Amino acid sequence: MQANPRLWLAPILSLGWVVLSGWLPQLEAAEIQWGNPAAAIPPTVLQNMGDPTIIKEGNWFYMYGSGSGIPGVRSTNLVNWEALPRVFPTNDTPTWSPITPITAENAGNQIWAPQITKYGSTYRMYYSHSTIGSQRSVIGLATASTLDPTSGSYGWTDQGLVLESFVDDPGGYNAIDPKMHVEVAGENGAGGNSVGKNWLMWGSYWSGIFVTSLNRSTGKSPGASRYQLAARPMTNGTMPGIEGSTVVWRNGYYYLFVSYDVYESYNVRVGRSASLTGPYVDRQGRSMTNGFATPVLAPYAKWRNTGHNDVLLGQSTGYDLFVNHIWTKDFIRALQVRPLFWASDGWPLVGEPITQYPSAAATALPGSWVHQTGWSNTLSITYASNGTFSTSTGGSGTWQTNSGRLNLNWSGGLTQELTLHPDGNSYVGRASDDADIRGWRVPATPAGTNGSYNLASRWQGGAIPRAADVAIVEDDGTLSMSATDPDWSVLDIRIAANMGSLGAMTQTGGRVTQTGWMRIGIHGAGSLDQSGGTNQISGFLTVGENQGGVGTVNLRGTGTLSCSDLMVGWAHFSSRGEFLMQQGNFNVSYATFIGLEGTGTLSVAGGTMNVAGNGWGAFRIGNWPNTNSMGTGTVNLLGGTVNANNFTTVGGFGNGTLNISGGSWNQNAGNLYVGEKVDSTYLGRGEVNQSGGILSSWYVFLQQGTYNLNGGTLSVAGVGDGATNANGTLNFNGGVLRGTFSNANFLVVDTATVQSGGAIFDTQGYDLTTSQPLAGPGGLTKRGTGRLKLTGSLAYLGSTKVEAGILEIPGANFTASIGAGTMTVSFLTPPPDGEYTVLPSSLNGSPTTTFSGLGTFQTASFSPLTGRVTVATVSGFNYWAGTNTTMTPELLLSYGVGGASAPGQAGESTSLALTSGVLRLTAVVRTNDPAVTVSAQTSSNLYTWSDLASNRFGLPAANTNGVPAGCQRRVFETPIQGETRKFLKLNVNSQ
Fold it and tell me: What does the buried/exposed string (b/e) look like for 56-67 if buried means 16 or more CB atoms within 10 Å of the residue's CB?
């Protein structure tokens, strides 16, 4: 039973329509329906019941559900059902219950979620009594000896209270949605088998699902030990939905099924445990008490509100049974019966609704199918008789069947194991990431539901809708338009307007004009496939609109589509819309909204999309300020061109994502805002993931969002923040940040990280300055002929590379200017001796480095390996001439140059003398190693050196005293030519 602690009323139409473009459709118009308006709900659907439970007695299957007095039905073939007397035919509610109805009118609708089990010869039906949104609830028990109303012993006895909960109950649970389980031989119970032991599960909001033992003879008297089996953590102060538990034992595991969420997003999930009392984990091994569970059934195609299930094992032919409820197109809850299969890994799979039981003989696989992944991503797939398959999106591979399994081997290496329905008309499976996979054969189109719009006989009343009419396509109808059809003008086209309906339109040519709107998937599942022709819409194009609406658009080929505003995933949190543009042209006169209250996706793989924009901007992706719900919007740019002629927001009030892997996004006017933060009501986030392509904008503002620059090019005048009440992050990881304007504040965000792919700045010919701190494991590359000045703290760990232009890095007392192969370090004042960090890590290359601003007798060097400059002061001389002068290692070496030990005798060690205007250096050098050469250089300032004008390798000295073998005393001379000071040094080069 859906017992959301917060009452909610869904708006069918929003006054927000008025302010979006200032235009509303005319309300008075003839509505003419296409195709077969009498198409019925499949017979597997039973109306006016919810929260089903199922059991078998004899040849009959019995189902009971929520409702006044507990209604029930029975069937021998799971398709045709007959009504049963109510369990409590004279009492709408239990006479003993302390629960007070909300109103007198709904008093009879408060018996929820009955669950039936047989213990011994007695049928025990547990039920709950509560009110929506309240923790004050009770669970009661009724018993009977037979379910057959024709038996003389038929009748139910109310046994009264079993369990209750109170508002703010310290136990933390809500006493609704009971499930009794009786241990059988081979089970593990709570760590050991106890055949016949009774267990009761219950719970929903307020701490989740619990279990306790019961007295076997009475089915009451709950035990003192109560175990929590599953729960969902609070989210933003809200209790997420979890309820409707049921458990079965199979092959060594207990499988716990629960229902998540509410209303249109209601879905069933499962976990398993070797012990009935837990711990239960999902297929990935994560705990159900932490909110994890593996999905088995969620809204898809025309089915909505798919939840609150029960399971019956071993009582049917060909498969086990899974029952659940849905909402019909008239907003009525109804029941479905589905086959329950088991994958080879032991986990359950839920198939398509049963239309025939026992199943017909299996139909061979080859033919046209719909293949769906993740509940909403569908494609057409054709299975050929030669064991190959191909898809509408270009995929292909091979297939094999074996013992009820269908194995798909996709080109590229992906393999999928699926389970076939015994009739061969559907299959179900699960991807490695737990995404649901299912497929169903495309049936022959019913007569009267397909063909050109220009066939009057296909329209109700035999009249083709004209300019003042509304054309409605649903009930599995497909409307087509081609180049041979005459031009067509109508007020609106509505595809799949009613809950649970299906409708489609294909256009290969021709021209259709709507003076009002085109609405695809209003409450049902609708689609538009346009590969040619012109589709002109004066008003909105809505794709996935309102409660239960699922819409898809595929624009390809030479098709041209235009509208005032595009709305994808609108007007209800359950709406879902997908727009795929492969080729063609798409023009939007005002704004494009992706994911308003619902979930919307726009994918552009080719063609050109032009959006003019208005006061709402050009694109609002997951950012529609509506207090009813936060939408989720995703735009994927894979190729083609998008021209946005006004600002774009990605996330803000809701959550938005822009993925760019190819193509060009041209923000021709306005800026790009990632995670717009207007005020405290904007709780969503924005994210841009760029791995290729190019995004061009004046500015990108990272407010409450993240830009992952993993590849491609972000071409902007600057990247900023613009919101002090939010946090934005730019992650460099291999993409290029290109400047388009000289800017002294080029990059100013809350956080910028340099990931392993590195940060690449392209200045082009501009001067860019940023004080942004940069940190992370990657490196930095400078491109472009301009100048990049980094004034913030640098803590990235990778190498720095300058391919062109100048990278300027100011220090506390210096400025380093690094070019492609050159480097200049300018000190403002002579620095103290020591190391100075220019770069946080190494420099790619060995630049020719010059220094300025050093003090007297100071010399400096730059290490590309460390990115640091070393400054040292060398000793000077008190006089020009002399012998036995001690030289520091930086100048000469006090040992024999090249490796020989200098003698210690007076007059025989290294000496420097000034004689007749010639500065003469005498030193012992090594000569017996051809790999070692010793040469001299001269300097007047100790940091600019030049080779001797002559005899730079020296001349042999006459004095050979004390010279070791393999060495020679040599004299190096340079004339004094007006210098006030002059120095000689020897360089040793080893090959």
Answer: beeeebbbbbbb
* Planar angle of CA 240, 245, 251, nearest 5 degrees: 130
Does residue 372 contact residue 389 with C-beta atoms inside 8 Å?
no
User: How far is it, in rounded angstroms, from Cα 590 to Cα 82?
Assistant: 54
Task: Catalytic residue, from 177, 183, 187, 243: name it.
Answer: 243
Q: Tell me how far apart the alpha carbons of residues 104 and 101 are, in angstroms, rounded to a whole number.
A: 7
pTM of the model: 0.60
What distances in angstroms separate CA 290 from CA 5, 222, 232, 244, one per listed residue? Answer: 20, 25, 6, 17
202-214 residue pLDDT tens? 998 888 999 999 9
Catalytic one among 51, 261, 485, 676? 51
pLDDT at 795: 95
Q: Residue 312 carries which side chain, given as an amino acid letter?
A: L
Cα separation, 528 vs 1, in Å, equals 36
- Look at residue 207 and give its three-state secondary structure: coil
Which strand ranges, in their side-by-side order, compose the sheet holding 122-129? Answer: 111-119, 122-129, 137-144, 157-165
908 flagged as catalytic: no
Q: How far is residue 765 from each of residues 44, 452, 715, 759, 787, measured CA to CA in Å?
A: 70, 58, 13, 18, 8
Beta strands in 589-679 (DSSP E): 592-594, 599-604, 608-611, 619-621, 632-637, 641-644, 648-650, 655-660, 664-667, 672-674
What's at 144, amino acid-wise? A
pLDDT tens figures, 625-662: 876 668 899 999 999 999 999 999 999 888 999 999 99
Q: Distance from first CA to last CA of the chain, Å, rounded?
A: 85
Residues 6+ apart with CB under 8 A from 790: 770, 774, 807, 808, 809
Pairwise CA distance, residues 798 & 722, whole Å: 30
Total residues belonging to the chain: 991
Pairwise CA distance, residues 833 & 856, whole Å: 12
51 is catalytic: yes
Can you read off the two tokens belonging to residue 122? Answer: 């007695």
Identify whether the C-beta of residue 667 lies closer than 8 Å to the C-beta of residue 698: yes
Residue type, 465: P
**178 Cβ contact partners less than 8 Å away, ≥ 6 residues apart:** 113, 115, 126, 127, 128, 139, 162, 163, 200, 201, 202
Helix, strand, or coil here: 374?
A: coil
838-852: per-residue pLDDT in tens?
999 999 988 999 999
